[in-house]
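Write out the 3D structure for:
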Amino acid sequence: MNTATVRVLGLALLLGAGALARGQETETAPLAVRAAVWGQVARPGQYLLRGSPDLLELLSQAGGPTANADLTRILLIRERDKTRRRLNLDRLVASGEPLFIAPGDVVVVPESGWSRFKSNLPFVSTLVVVANLVVTVTLMARK
């Protein structure tokens, strides 16, 4: 390649990079999709994903679900049409059909019922002990 060709190619690359930096679409650059994932994932927050991302890609970017996640009741909130949809990730994966993420989507991964129960167990145990103590004292007072 001659020097003029290298300069033209270099200038084209710089112009393309400038367009991307300003958020403009070019023919070769995929669109970016901004979506958020909250709840029981390792790194909740907003993510900028390239191309046509699906739900699994968004969850992966967020570090995956935590051990406390209920993957059968994921909530998808679509900004574009203001709809809310409950998703069962097991069924979605089994179907083999990707669920594509749209710009502005919010995904909420809820805490499982078992996890909530486990986190409240110390409180429930304390309540049972206090109730047992009250019953014992009441029965002893009657004798």
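Residues 1-29 have pLDDT under 50 and may be disordered.
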